[in-house]
Design goal:
four-stranded antiparallel sheet; alpha+beta; elongated; 32 helices
Length: 984
Amino acid sequence: MDTERHVFQVDTLERYAAKGHGVITCMSAGNDVIVLGTSKGWVIRHDFGVGDSLDLDLSVGRTGDQPVHRVFVDPGGSHCIATVLCSGGAETYYLHAKWGKPRNLSRLKGLVVNAVAWNRQQITEASTREVILGTDGGQLYEMAVDEKDKKEKYVKLLFELTELTEAFMGLQMETANIGNATRFYVMAVTPTRLYSFTGIGSLDSVFASYSDRAVHFMELPGEIPNSELHFYIKQRRAEHFAWLSGAGIYHGGLNFGAQHSSSDGDENFVENKALLDYSKLTESGETVEPKSLAVSEFHFLLLIGNKVKVVNRISQQIIEELQFDFVPGSVSRGILGLCSDATAGLFYAYDQNSIYQVSVQDEGRDMWRVYLDMKEYAAALVHCRYPFQRDEVYLVQADAAFSSKDYVRAASFYAKINYILSFEEITLKFIGIGEQEALRTFLLRRLDNLTKDDKCQITMISTWATELYLDKINRLLLEVDTDNHQSSAEYQSTIKEFRAFLSDSKDVLDEATTMKLLESYGRVEELVYFASLKEHYEIVIHHYIQQGEAKKALEVLQKPNVAIELQYKFAPDLIMLDAYETVESWMTTSNLNPRKLIPAMMRYSSEPHAKNETHEVIKYLEFCVHRLLNEDPGIHNLLLSLYAKQEDDSALLRFLQCKFGKGRSDGPEFFYDPKYALRLCLKEKRMRACVHIYSMMSMHEEAVALALQVDLELAMAEADKVEDDEDLRKKLWLMVAKHVIEQEKGTKRENIRKAIAFLKETDGLLKIEDILPFFPDFALIDDFKEAICSSLEDYNKQIEQLKEEMNDATHGADNIRQDISALSQRYTVIDRDEECGACKRKILATGGARRMARGYTSVGPMAPFYIFPCGHAFHSECLIAHVTRCSNRTQAEYILDLQKQLSLLGNSITTNGHAEDESITSTNPVDKVRSQLDDAIASECPFCGDLMIREISLPFILPGESELASSWEIKQQLGNQRSLPVAI
């Protein structure tokens, strides 16, 4: 304990505090306010917060000695109650901090007030709220005073002692909120008893409830005239109490929050009760009763004689004695009493003339040592402030456990020490006695206390702990071999604990060292586990494959952070170990490249398999082709080769017939190599598949020739596949026919009969004359008489049909000649007022107003023109301009070019703009150009034909007319304009 620096210190605050108004008889303090009572009936109020004082005479109008019996100040320093002993009886006064003179509480006349309990939780500067007064006659009164009323609001008798009438010497009150109600806790002391009251509601209802139940009290032997009751207040809540009784100081903790709403015996809100015997206050063991008491957080201040002894509340040991500096030559009866200011955290002592201040400096600094000496280690740690203090507490606990041979527990405490013992000293303690279990516990606990910055130390300790774990596991393994069930359970528990340690320490353990340790101890399972933690999955997978546990290996490969390359590396071993599980795993892995699995699949396929066994490689390849839509030729070729090796060729044929690329616009219909497929199918003698491949490669002759060796129906179907090449189709059918005739072994007439029946199947493609060369030379013509006659009849029908078609063509040519002749004579009548559809001028107008079109000859003074069957007429020049403007650029250039050629040729034309009769058959260049121009501009009426329909989509304003269109825009006039009224 630090003895160099005192916790409590006494200073003289005021030498002549009574200011000549007699001597000091009583004192009270609160919130830096001290109120004194004197022997001449004066109350002196010192407010150290604002630095002023007030002297009040309470004996005005009375004669004789009128000493102030008691003064009481609330914790806020605003309210004061004082009792004066007069010859006519006691008088009680109330004084507010803002008042200049006190107010007599007339309802308390004649009552000697010894104690006051303030409602600390609810009191305000303006109102005292509920106040309990304890009298010399054993009564408890409730009173309330508001500063604005200038007098007491009410005075109620709450309780009166009847069994043993004694004066109430001390009072304390505490409140607690329970829901919307308030619970009151009241403690009161007499010279021999401590009473407890509690209840919910108002104070009068709480005390009224004791009319039908017993009052809870604690009685102690002996009697003391100056019995006192004090609460230690921290943050406006009472934490513990102390009663200055005749037997000693009765004290304990207070718990106001854990009480139930109402029950008998709930007055027991006192915890950890204890009694400090007065005999401990002197070295001789004599009983010396203190004159006064004050309570701090950890100590009692006891006034014994003219000294204040400071006693530690926990250890009950005197830690200091306070001496007072009395005024030399003054007449004094010594220190009269102590009082405390809970709000300011100060203590005061007073004699007849002076006030002394007792200040406290860090009184909890040595409490950790007090609790440590009492072996209350948890409390000691709570009060430790520095690491060295905590180390000392841990060291005491560790040494105690070590002495009692509880080495594991001692290791836990040693691990918490950081300063007063080195790491080496602690480890040597356990190594010296051979306690590896305790040593391992120490290392593990030490790891928990290290910070992340101690990387080197963490790695070394973790490695040491790993070796200790392995040593223990090996020792337990030897014990397990002796069929010890307890050792077996401990072995399994240690393995589980070791794996948890590896998991927690994977980031701090050195990888190479740890693996070497695990390998040297033969712990393959833990080696695999650690490799998995360090994400060395190759080691893990290799181990599972060696153990034949393909499913576990595949589960590791399925982890998202496992490199996909490991799938390809271990695929050959896994598929040989468990083909079903391997293929199922492949099908659930999304980012696999099936091409890289081909070596593994080929190795599996090279092994013999049972006839009814599901070929797992085929299943996976089908999944790739049909579900994943794989386009890799290697995958398709491998699947094709596996199909070809099966006894049943139905799957092979279905595969060949599937067009896997048909969904692509520019892709192939299949992805396998047809040449490879053909070689493979020929090698495996899959003739139907070969026929299909020949046909697919457009080698129809080879397909039919091979099909004839397999099945006639297949050959016929192949021959029918050729539809766009009639000659090839006929050639193929001739091959089939030749085969049918050559393979027929029946009689001659039967051969002929079957050959003729075959002709009917060709649907007229082959005639009897086509197959005659295939019959032997010695066949008689009579055998073909019917077939030949039938063929001749067919030819005759075809000749007659051709004759009818020629006659119809001749008649059609005659009709066309007549139509041409009629067209050359066709005319139309034009009205004299007929207007040009483009320029709106009259068609038959005379004069030189209209320039003649180049290449045309006018009739008299009229310009050349066109008239259409619909009635619309146009000048030739207007029509050319209109059509050129409405046509695309290419067509317009073509028309202008024709017009230019016609102008250069310069030949005359007819007056109506039509060529003469001989132009129909003429080869004159002018007529030819004019005919081309007519076709370009006058093939249809521009108002009634397609040209007008196309003009609908053209804009009204052409790109070159933008300037004209902008001139029509209505622009806002910025200047002032006058508007003319418009009558409506």
